[in-house]
Amino acid sequence: MTKSSFFYLSVLLVSFLFSPTAFAASTKSEVLALKEEVARLREGQESIQNDLAEIRKLLEEGARPAPSAPQAPTFQEREVSIRGASVKGDPEAALTLIEYSDYQCPFCSRHARQTMPQLLENYIEQGKVKFVMREFPIAGLHPRAPAAAQAALCARDQGRYWEMHDILFANQRQMSDENLQDYAEEIGLEASAFSACLESDKYMAQVEADIEEGKSMGVRGTPSFVLGYTDTENPDNVKAVRFVRGAQSYDNFVRVIEELLKDEPEGDSAP
């Protein structure tokens, strides 16, 4: 919604309200409906402005949107342990996709809303790819992201990691302590246990470890992804072979995944 469109509708509302003929002919419900429409348009405009401000801030800090090439040329193959990580899909799937993400990052939210559902349907739920989530809050850009990351891990204590994951990405601008507690109750967590976990910083060390691991992989912004072959003897080990930077399109992910599935070493496990 542009400023000019919003201005036009606001003028229309004022004209309508103060026109004796229109006012006399209208019902109270019609007036209220028009007021509500203008309020929704105002909220939409504010949301767009907030998104633009966030993207501008990210660009100024050097966190650019995804480039056209999905693979980082400097990535070196290595073994990665995913022991204790948040996992979705068949533990023994041939490929493992590791995401380094920030719950207040708009590009991460876009990936979660637009690309991940397709990957889930066509690869993860089909047993071809195992999905692993790593916490990578960038506190300098998103002050509440570390607390959100810990909230997700505290929810995992009660078997609700992915439910918290989804609700956090759906509410990126509402992440106060009170908001996090509300989300915990909304997804059915035991409130006092969740609150105690969050207040204790129980998972801060794990969040910091995830960040350090990501940096060692070459992660400089979010979202970033590492793809690798699952060790056939120990599914907690992954031979990481490809790096995908940014909120790439679904088609880009498909190209990389299909290439790796085609080249999957037969009977060979990660070193």
Descriptive account of the structure:
By secondary structure, the chain is an alpha+beta fold. Strands 1-6-5-3-4-2 form a six-stranded mixed β-sheet, with helices on both faces. The chain starts with a helix and ends in a 9-residue tail after the last helix. Helix 4 links the parallel strand 3 and strand 4. It folds into two domains: about 60 residues; about 180 residues, Glutaredoxin (3-Layer(aba) Sandwich). Helix content is about 50%, strand content about 15%. InterPro entries: Thioredoxin-like_fold, Thioredoxin-like_sf, Thioredoxin_domain. GO terms for molecular function: oxidoreductase activity.
Task: Summarize it.
This protein is an alpha+beta fold. The protein contains ten helices and six strands; from the N terminus they run αααβββαβαααααββα. The chain is globular and about 65 Å long.
Helix content: 40-55%
Reported for the largest beta sheet, the result is: 6 strands, mixed
Strand neighbour order, sheet with most strands = 1-6-5-3-4-2
Helix/strand class = alpha+beta
Distance between the termini: 54 Å
